[in-house]
Amino acid sequence: MSPKIPKPKKPKPKTTSLSETALYLPVKKWLETQGYEVKAEIGAADVVGMRAHEDPVIVELKTTFSLSLLHQAIDRQSITDNVYVAVPRKPGKAAYKILRKNKSLCRRLGLGLLTIRPKDNLVEMICAPAPFTPRKSKKKQAKLLKDFTQLSGDPNKGGQTRQGLMTGYRQDALRCLKVLFDEGATKASIVKDLSGVARARNIMADNHYGWFEKVERGVYGVTDAGAKAVIEFGEEILFLLPTSETIS
Fold this sequence. Notes:
Layout: H1 20-32, E1 37-42, E2 45-50, E3 57-61, H2 67-76, E4 82-88, H3 93-109, E5 112-117, E6 122-127, H4 138-150, H5 168-183, E7 186-187, H6 188-195, H7 200-206, E8 212-216, E9 219-222, H8 224-232, H9 234-240
Parallel strand pairs: 3-4, 4-5
Antiparallel strand pairs: 1-2, 2-3, 5-6, 7-9, 8-9
């Protein structure tokens, strides 16, 4: 049997990058087409554009979007409201998502955002400098207040990952689980009364954690995973008992 000959690897496409100095000419030309006289490295500013008796335009150049770039741009706002940051435009969906977030950040800071496409030096204005008033989301605020109210105590540590996070939903599921663990297979209406969880039927039917099983219509029991969860979350269940004293 002849040995397999490995297929030659396809060479990775070369990516073109721009240095900060290479960003200058495209930005200069972009401003000049709008009637600005443009000069580089005026004081601490990378690029300054002047037009008639208007306030100056300042552009800060960087090869990547960074916190230091924002610091520089914010500092330039003490000179003029017309401050842009300019970075090379990167291809791909992931880069586009990051660009959208950076656009949102720049808008909140009152900064303009320019991108320069490396292959042809095309300058695109993603957003212009302008005052920004954030819009509040009543829906998001209502959800935040609901989550806060439904969570008993403060079982989580600030900064931990979302995985394994204790939520009001999980606490209610544990209350239902304790009832079934103590009482055996039980009607959903009884679990609701004993646990004090109004949504007990939906929680057990959805079985998000794999703790519950439907024994017959309207009756639920505990799975092996549920029995393990009683042990795993023993301390949390003890904490929850004061709100469901009839469980034990």
